[in-house]
Write a sequence for this structure.
């Protein structure tokens, strides 16, 4: 995969002007994939997706769906109609929820004769640490919890998972090649961790087996977003996953 295909920039901003301004700055720098999350989608709805596409970008719609199977399946079909490249749901919603979402995405795409979006499952948020799992009453290690959720997603047939780069290696080992690993929690050397707990640098993430890295604040809050994106693309260009 080319470095530009691996980088997904999180457009965690409030409004369409700011988002599309960033897209127009970043596309010429070699970025082609953008993540639209809760803040942007709640503020401006689906119109921003069309703007991103028109500017030459593909969209990862990061709404982390988690509800009863019928509701999630219908929302997943609606996202498919929006023509997104990738979307996600919480694996903790269970097998039945994931299965119905997958069926619904594929049926909707077939009806519209379009490519179905990649459907990936969120394991454990990268902002959570071991203690947070204890607070939730989970008596597993964080790594085991992530791994069990990744295996569950794979057994249902999802395209891949979202996890921290620190768990990428063990997930690749357990779930094999071809199962997509998307890693947020990316922090280039010398940037702050913010609220992320389980971080790695862009090259560490790719070497650990990540297919895609999601980067927000280190690019969008940088005084020179294009320069920051280019530095990351350069950093990952010689990287090959360590087998
Ligand atoms: O700014 P930063 O690089 O930390 O942004 C990370 C992005 O990835 C945020 O949009 C966040 O919602 C998202 N994300 C995450 N952890 C997950 C799934 C998504 O941080 N497990």
């Amino acid at each position: 995969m080319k470095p530009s295909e691996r980088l997904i920039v999180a457009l965690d901003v409030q409004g369409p002007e700011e988002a599309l301004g960033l897209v127009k700055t970043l596309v010429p720098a070699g970025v082609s994939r953008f993540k639209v999350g809760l803040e942007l989608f709640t503020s401006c709805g689906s119109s921003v997706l069309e703007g991103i596409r028109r500017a030459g970008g593909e969209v990862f719609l990061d709404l982390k769906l988690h509800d009863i199977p019928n509701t999630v399946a219908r929302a997943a079909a609606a996202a498919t109609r929006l023509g997104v490249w990738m979307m996600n749901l919480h694996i903790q919603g269970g097998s039945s929820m994931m299965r119905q979402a997958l069926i619904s995405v594929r049926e909707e795409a077939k009806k519209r004769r379009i490519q179905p979006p990649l459907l990936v499952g969120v394991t454990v948020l990268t902002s959570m640490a071991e203690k947070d799992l204890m607070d939730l009453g989970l008596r597993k290690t964080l790594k085991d919890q992530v791994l069990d959720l990744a295996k569950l997603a794979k057994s249902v047939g999802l395209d891949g998972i979202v996890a921290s780069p620190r768990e990428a290696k063990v997930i690749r080992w357990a779930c094999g090649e071809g199962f997509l690993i998307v890693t947020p929690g990316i922090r280039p050397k010398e940037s702050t961790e913010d609220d992320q707990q389980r971080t790695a640098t862009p090259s560490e993430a790719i070497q650990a087996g990540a297919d895609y890295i999601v980067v927000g604040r280190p690019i969008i809050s940088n005084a020179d977003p294009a320069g920051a994106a280019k530095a990351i693309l350069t950093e990952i260009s010689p990287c090959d996953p360590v087998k």
The radius of gyration is 17 Å. The mean pLDDT is 94. The domain at 3-236 is CATH 3.20.20.70 (TIM Barrel).
